[in-house]
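Running this now, will post back.
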Amino acid sequence: MTVWQILRWVGAAVGLIALIVFFALLGLDRADQLSSVLSLFFTAAGFVLAVVSHLQQQPTSGPSPVARGGSIASAGSVRGSKAIDTGSSGAPSGWQPAPPTGAGPSADRGSIAAGGDVKDSEARRGS
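Update: finished.
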C-alpha cells in the first residue's frame, strides 16, 4: 500500500469514529432526525450528479469498419476467422473501391464485414 492509500483509510476511519461520537452525544432521537435530513441531501446530490453525468455523455459512434481485398472488418470481436487472398482480384490496376456511405461495416471483394461478433468465418479472394 502506498502512503496516500494508508492516509485515506486512516482519514475514513477517523471520520467514521467522529461521526459515531457526534451522534452518540446528540442522543438517539436527535441523531435520527439529523441523519434523515443528511440522507435526503446526499440522495438529492447523487441524483443531480447522475443526471449531469448522463447528459454529458458523448455518443461513441466512430468510423465504421471497412473490409477490403480479402480482409475482415467487425464492430465486435473476431475469433477463429481468416481472410485469404489467392491471387489477383480481376480489378483494373489502380482501382480503389468507393468509401462506405452507410453507418454499418462494409465489405467488398472477398471480405467479411459484420455489425457484431465474427467467429469461424472465412473469406477467399482469388482470380
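The radius of gyration is 30 Å. More later if anyone needs it.
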